[in-house]
Amino acid sequence: MNAAIRAVVRTAIYHDIAVTGIYHGYQGMIDREFVDMNRRSVSSIIQKGGTILKSARCLDFKTKEGREKAYNNIKSQGIDALVAIGGDGTFTGAKIFSEEYDIPVMCIPGTIDNDLCGTDYTLGYDTANNTVIEAIDKIRDTASSHNRVFFVEVMGRDSGCIALSAGVGGGAEAILLPELNSGIDDLLDEIYLAESRNKTSMIVIIAEGDKNGGAYNVAKIVKEKIPHLDIKVSILGHLQRGGAPSSFDRILGTRMGYIAVNELLKGNSKATVGIRGNQMVTTPLEEALNTKELKLDDELLAIANIMNK
Amino acid sequence: MNAAIRAVVRTAIYHDIAVTGIYHGYQGMIDREFVDMNRRSVSSIIQKGGTILKSARCLDFKTKEGREKAYNNIKSQGIDALVAIGGDGTFTGAKIFSEEYDIPVMCIPGTIDNDLCGTDYTLGYDTANNTVIEAIDKIRDTASSHNRVFFVEVMGRDSGCIALSAGVGGGAEAILLPELNSGIDDLLDEIYLAESRNKTSMIVIIAEGDKNGGAYNVAKIVKEKIPHLDIKVSILGHLQRGGAPSSFDRILGTRMGYIAVNELLKGNSKATVGIRGNQMVTTPLEEALNTKELKLDDELLAIANIMNK
Amino acid sequence: MNAAIRAVVRTAIYHDIAVTGIYHGYQGMIDREFVDMNRRSVSSIIQKGGTILKSARCLDFKTKEGREKAYNNIKSQGIDALVAIGGDGTFTGAKIFSEEYDIPVMCIPGTIDNDLCGTDYTLGYDTANNTVIEAIDKIRDTASSHNRVFFVEVMGRDSGCIALSAGVGGGAEAILLPELNSGIDDLLDEIYLAESRNKTSMIVIIAEGDKNGGAYNVAKIVKEKIPHLDIKVSILGHLQRGGAPSSFDRILGTRMGYIAVNELLKGNSKATVGIRGNQMVTTPLEEALNTKELKLDDELLAIANIMNK
Amino acid sequence: MNAAIRAVVRTAIYHDIAVTGIYHGYQGMIDREFVDMNRRSVSSIIQKGGTILKSARCLDFKTKEGREKAYNNIKSQGIDALVAIGGDGTFTGAKIFSEEYDIPVMCIPGTIDNDLCGTDYTLGYDTANNTVIEAIDKIRDTASSHNRVFFVEVMGRDSGCIALSAGVGGGAEAILLPELNSGIDDLLDEIYLAESRNKTSMIVIIAEGDKNGGAYNVAKIVKEKIPHLDIKVSILGHLQRGGAPSSFDRILGTRMGYIAVNELLKGNSKATVGIRGNQMVTTPLEEALNTKELKLDDELLAIANIMNK
């Protein structure tokens, strides 16, 4: 996301627009955590993971008083428009705020879960995928005994995007996705199939939102059904959200920041930038928040199944 | 490219089609370097860099006799169709061979240069970009003295794609691209600009096909013009072609292999698979080889300039 | 460990000694999983994680019958001496076998836990440390909210070596080690201290052998005591055992393989190679197995405490 | 080196000693580039490559006037002792300064070249080795054609330490070291040998200080002698000096910083800390600078030769 921040700052400066950074998102608008940003503020941040402006949940922003305070603060700071980077919580806050106070807002979709409408890819998704497949590659190296099954739990909230991509990219033998609601039985079949093939070991990717309750739970159930299995569990956790951003995310973030400023200059507002195919587009926040888009790639699902036959 | 090989093999097997691997490309067709491939042949290759089937230039294939020998060999081997992975040399050979002998051929674009028509991205491009930005990140760490300029030469033959992407992703202060034919003067201006900003150091990306003759040459010319500069040169070389493939390349390769087989099954031939936006497409080899497509992304070029103002 | 295998093979070949590789350790001696090894068998393996000869637990080897079968097999295969790579299970088996049958054996200490006597460092330890600090670095990137504590569980069986090294290298705010038997109270104090310093977030490394029961357990207890904390847990798992070996491990493995063969040639047996300071040494298996060496580095412990004051 | 800075700061604070950081080394002492350092100044720097205090050559410090100015500056700043991190240039300056002005100085050996006396390992050496073997691994992936030779030039000034370590760790087929003064003939023999073995390709590591003049020069000479070779050259350059420090370097740097402060507290001065075997030691600067220690590891040299027979 730092690539996006850098692009916003430098594109704005190119158009002689002053930029104020706000720490801790909406909370920072309430607490007046402002910082002037110039060209130098964003030098050497494009390779940094995380975000230099930090982030935070903000309950106060959900109240009218909170938003009023925020508005007064940014007005007294001389801020005329906002670029908000985040997930659907950020989008929701931006939409409400921008309706209440008529301040132009452009959003940039930043979350590893890739579950936002209005874009094919969110910032952080490619980096997270690369982190997960590196972990899977390392686990694959240790596969040398028979009857060993590795359960790897990956992030995504209720989205199976990372699980599916990393599962295909890592050559996982089975993937448990929330969207598919597959029970343990399918997984047990996969395990029997792998054993019949005399496979040395097996890697199973479990999305954290999977309805069966997470890697430890599934491992427990599977162990009861097939006791001779040697089951190992990894819960990757927050390392999926950090690390130096990938090339794809840096380019995408840079494009998104650039487009966000240009769109604001064109008078666009209450929208999010996104990438559709190869085109940078904008989508009204209303639409982005209300559209129920099944983000799982059907073709990739079909491919995942074939790879394991 | 191993992801593509794996997908071809497993998709074919899914359709009860036998697969023969050919080592060393067209040379292997002439030298009878055949190997039966089954499900197990492609286990654990998706994370490997390079290609398990090796590759080679093949001059013999450019002759009628060479191709005749190749055809007889593959026919006696029982091969009915070909999937060829490579760059435009591979495409050209595939087109000619497939016209001469009426054997169905699907190509998969595999080269880091991203200069093939028919696809937005070639296999290996994303991985190479990630390798280059990792190198730039490390160089950036060492930037602590004034007046220091790092010249980093990257691959791409006559294409500036990697130079542009990695230049933006790495936050390079200047990028020399073959397509733009910029002379040294523009670069000297950038250097003066950076110095006036009291920048600690500066990273310049030079595409290997740049008309000014490569990083060492440019460094020499610049040193003569601005003698007080401390210039350091890195020629990244072939490490850009290796390494574990990125998540993006593994998914893309898997898709391409899957589509290639499906297209052959549908009777498609003399074409290359590719990705356009989000869609997997095929493009006749005739068109892919003859279309002069300027692959440099204008929007990214514009962004690169603004990032450095 | 592949570096060691490669060094054994090439050093033996240099002395005109034939080498037979045995898959799956002692189990492979019983099952006759032999493979001739020559110079080419070990090309391009030095960068591979895991071990090309696989590994396995072997219960049969613990029985006289199992060992007798193993001995007959290796004798009929023409094997005159053994190099066994592994942990204390491997050492124990080697010692017993070598006493029963008077066959020369040299061991090489290969385990990430670094808890073997006879050597300052075991093969795999440095690589595992690097893997863990990379994970900690990524988690550190995501630290932006207050009151957030990350619990990272690392391997080591009953050894806190990795936890201590990676804890210091990753700048962790607290480390729970089995050897110290620290209760949760010390950890709670650290958390209060970090909060008083207004630290954004905190990383706690927990060795898997810690007496408090693992990261999830500790997280539960801490959450009850300090409910406002936002606790995130990562269980790194087996990725710590894989991945391309580090430079240190490749050099160490190569030295160990080389010394193992030389020692056998000098008539040494029933011993393990090891590194003490800078010297390669050998230690009789008897001594290596019976000596209770507290492997935790007192100086590093003291340093870890000071870094967090 | 940031690990060392962090350890100096936190160890000093532990002993209630105030710390002033000086940017740009000795130049900063002359230009008064001082910064108060507290506990927070060194949070989150242990994973950063480079050094937060920057570095610079300083010609002025070689003059009496320059040193006088520096001394007055640090005295007025209230500085009573110095910790200087760097190579032999740093050591020399420290020794002279500390003799002239009787101010206690401890040095910490920080250079990737590993050519300083008084220590087995310098800070940055392990990280550089890991960077080089990653590059070699990637190049190895691309090796698929016959008759291809890759020349990789690595750093080290006049030291072949990195070339030897990375050459062994990367499985290079030949290594050119300054200390050995081997001519091109030995290299040509190695190439003929590899060809006779039908090796697909070959990696040659060339230390930058090698007397034959660098990778491009050697490549030229070899190409003239064996024209059918396809020679590719990589000059790794300054990426070897950057990147996140390895686990080994972080621990070593932390120890060195800790010891440096403790030694100053004990009244030690005009010395450098170092690691000998497993022990942290100090060596008088006089001795460290005047001892001609051949740093190449004879055992490793012997091993390198055997690995390639």
What level of helicity do the residues of chain A show?
40-55%
Oligomer: homotetramer
C-alpha termini separation of chain A: 38 Å
Total helical segments of chain A: 11
Q: What order do the strands of the largest sheet of chain A run in, or round the barrel if closed?
A: 3-4-9-10
The CATH architecture of the largest domain in chain A comes to: 3-Layer(aba) Sandwich
Main location (chains A, B, C, D): cytoplasm
Cofactor (chains A, B, C, D): Mg(2+)
Catalytic activity (chains A, B, C, D): beta-D-fructose 6-phosphate + ATP = beta-D-fructose 1,6-bisphosphate + ADP + H(+)
Subcellular location (chains A, B, C, D): Cytoplasm
Write the layout of secondary structure elements.
The structure is a homotetramer of 309-residue chains.
Chain A: H1 2-14, E1 19-22, H2 25-31, E2 34-37, H3 64-76, E3 82-86, H4 88-101, E4 105-109, H5 125-141, E5 148-154, H6 161-169, E6 174-176, H7 184-196, E7 201-207, H8 215-225, E8 230-235, H9 247-265, E9 271-276, E10 279-284, H10 285-290, H11 298-307
Parallel strand pairs in A: 3-4, 4-9, 5-7, 5-8, 6-7
Antiparallel strand pairs in A: 1-2, 9-10
Helix pairs in contact in A: 1-9, 2-3, 5-6, 6-11
Cofactor (chains A, B, C, D): Mg(2+)
Organism (chains A, B, C, D): Sphingobacterium thermophilum
Keywords (chains A, B, C, D): Allosteric enzyme, ATP-binding, Cytoplasm, Glycolysis, Kinase, Magnesium, Metal-binding, Nucleotide-binding, Transferase
